[in-house]
Write a structure and sequence with these properties.
Its EC number is 3.5.99.6. The protein is α/β, with parallel strands linked by helices and 260 residues long. The protein is built from eight helices and ten strands. The protein has a single domain, classed as Rossmann fold, CATH 3.40.50. The longest helix is centred in the first third of the chain and has 18 residues.
């Protein structure tokens, strides 16, 4: 995998936003896969700033969702659809019709999962998928021991993930127990996968994903199989990489026009 170590979260956000902008300059109708949570916010802020400055045109861009809670009522402010519309689609000035995601309120959730998986393929596939990483190495909501070939499906959240997400709700009791998530196999079909990790709490997970063995215990390690996977980590998140100096030197020597 390509590993880029940046000074801080803002630098990581700028780097990934420029990769997205470069993609949209080449392919104005690109399908961007987005993640929720606090980690990717610097990416969305930086990309929105580029749009406001006239550095990139996004009117043809499409946005797709990585995952969604099951059972939250339509319009709930913490549904991932609401979060993506609020933090990505609206700041970029896109119409809601540019957005696609799974139906977490469907009566037949397995059918909704299969429908979304098909929809991504029918849309031409994801051009760039942005990911975060959990402290246990999960990507999307593919918790440890998820199948590395898994497709979009319903998953039960671990207690640790529910605790991690409780900060977005009034209490942990309000955090749903189930989610729809793109599977690892679905994620790996994106043409470019970019994972952003910030903070010391992610250091162990990053080290295991990048330098550890391919293992279902660390779902993010599946990115080792991808032909174009980029890990962007700040110094704290990269602090346990044994090859940190090698990654810094390798990226420093890369021609600037290649981007990530």
């Amino acid at each position: 995998m390509e590993v880029v170590i940046v000074p801080d979260a803002a630098a990581g956000g700028e780097l990934i936003a420029e990769a997205m902008a470069a993609l949209l300059r080449r392919k104005p109708e690109a399908l961007l896969g987005v993640a929720t949570g606090s980690t990717p916010l610097p990416v969305y802020r930086a990309l929105s700033a580029k749009v406001r400055a006239g550095e990139v045109e996004v009117s043809g861009a499409r946005i797709c969702q990585l995952d969604e809670y099951v059972g939250l009522p339509a319009g709930h402010p913490e549904s991932y659809r609401s979060v993506v519309l609020r933090e990505v689609v609206e700041p970029l000035g896109l119409a809601e019709s540019a957005f696609m995601g799974p139906d977490g309120a469907a009566e037949d959730v397995p059918a909704a999962c299969a429908a979304y998986d098909r929809a991504l393929t029918e849309a031409g596939g994801v051009d760039l998928q942005l990911l975060g990483i959990g402290t246990d190495g999960h990507i999307g909501f593919n918790e440890p021991c998820s199948s590395l070939a898994s497709r979009t499906r319903i998953k039960t959240l671990t207690e640790q993930t529910r605790k991690d997400n409780a900060r977005f709700f009034d209490s942990i009791d309000q955090v749903p127990h189930h989610v729809i998530t793109q599977g690892i196999g679905t994620i790996l079909e994106a043409r470019h996968v970019v994972l952003l990790a910030t903070g010391e709490s992610k250091a162990d997970a990053v080290a295991l994903a990048v330098e550890g063995p391919l293992s279902a215990l660390v779902p993010a390690s599946a990115l080792q199989l991808h032909p174009h996977a980029t890990i962007v980590a700040d110094e704290a998140a990269a602090s346990r990489l044994k090859l940190g100096d090698y990654f810094r030197a390798t990226y420093a020597a890369k021609p600037a026009w290649q981007g990530i």
